[in-house]
Write a structure and sequence with these properties.
Elements lengths: L1 H16 L2 E7 L1 H16 L3 E7 L5 H7 L5 E6 H11 L4 E8 L2 E4 L14 E5 L2 H13 L4 E2 L12 E3 L5 E5 L13 E5 H6 L9 E3 L6 E6 L7 H10 L2 H11 L4 E2 L2
Parallel strand pairs: 1-2, 1-3, 6-9, 6-10
Antiparallel strand pairs: 3-12, 4-12, 4-13, 5-10, 5-11, 7-8
Helix pairs in contact: 2-7
Amino acid sequence: MKKILVALLSLFAVSAMANEKLVVGATPVPHAEILEFVKPILAKEGVDLQIKVFNDFIQPNQQLAEKHLDANYYQYLPFLDEYNKTRHTNLVPVVGVHIEPFGAYSVKYKSIKDLPDGADVAIPNDPVNTGRALVMLSEAGLITLKDPNNTQASTQDIVANPKHLRIRELEGAMLARALKQVDLAFVFANYALEAGIDTNSALLSEKGKSLYIEYLVARPDNIHSPAMQKLAKALNSPEVRNFIITRYKGQILPGF
């Protein structure tokens, strides 16, 4: 009887290990696609990866903090740091996975030099990406900032606007949809790809700095769990590197 009990307990333990579940929130492209790619890899290691897709930048962190998710994958460290600071959370980066270019697009003009006086320019409305867009406008000579290197700049930091640009701040997911209504719109690569926009057509482009590597993010209580570490290893594998290179053809780059 004792041997049978030990065998049953061992069987239950193996069964539990074979059914480790991870629920990960992600934006559709490329994050959810990359997670779908590693899903069968993790299944072979006994991890049931469940992917929950979001179309905004707030819910994935909120649901992770509230333990409705085990992790998320959609953001870079400056955005995460700002979220933790303003929401009083303690979400933590696990591994960096990829870098996305950030670009300014137009369906009306072929060159940034053609942008007219009084042009309507749409930029992201969250503090981190507002500053990122303003620094790019500054580097292009379209505006002058108090500190041209301040990636946390706001429109209040503009000290000169010689072309009288009318800068509108919109939620990130709305920028690609607003492209036809404005003269220039800053669009994240994930939304550009989703909308069928060629990221190589950007009039202004930041191809990707290490500061903006997109991370898998978890909590202090689960970052070292076996399932999380298996996911981290899979996301930094040669297979994922090759998938990013071949699938996105340079529009998205490996960040590891």
